[in-house]
Amino acid sequence: MLEMSRISKPKMLILLIAKYSFYLLGWFWTLKPRRVESMEDVLNLFYIQFLRLKKDDIEVIKLNDRELITRAKNPCPILKLSLILKIDTKISCKIISEPVCKYVLRKLNPNLKFERNYNHIRPYSESCEERIYLQK
Question: Smallest Cα–Cα separation from 133: which of 76, 70, 72?
Fold first, then answer.
């Protein structure tokens, strides 16, 4: 279990401000209706257009009709914030990024599910691994 209770109130406030700022960005981005029909659409709309990652920063581990697994090496503001605040990215990404990613993906297709591999996340690994799949 992630130890969020160990985070001081000022640091938690900063994480919550980051979370709601990211939510606001996600909300604005989803005002324009977008739908995905394939996992390639997910790669383009979610990673390239919404998260604004460069194609060179995304390694596609698996891509088929129902599943996309990526590893990202992009300059990451959440990683940078975590290092500055000395907060484990396993906690900060769970608070800031994961709920917003799930929200945006649900708007693209309500059947999309998002998972982050917390055993393969920076700074502990060279990249951050995520899995997006269609729920049956």
Answer: 70
What's the Cα-to-Cα distance from 84 to each of 74, 78, 81, rounded to whole Å?
Answer: 17, 10, 5
Q: Please give the span between the terminal C-alpha atoms of the chain, in angstroms, as a whole number.
A: 28
Q: Is residue 62 scored above 70 in pLDDT? A: yes
Question: SS3 for 135?
Answer: coil
**3-state SS class at 119:** coil
pLDDT of residue 136: 78
- pTM beyond 0.70: the answer is yes
- CA gap 121, 30 in Å, rounded: 27
Angle between helices 97-108 and 9-30 (to 10 degrees): 10
| 76 sits in which H/E element | none
Q: Cβ distance 96 to 19 under 8 Å? A: yes
Residue 6 has pLDDT above 90, yes or no: no
Domain ranges of the chain: 7-134
- CATH class label, 7-134: alpha beta
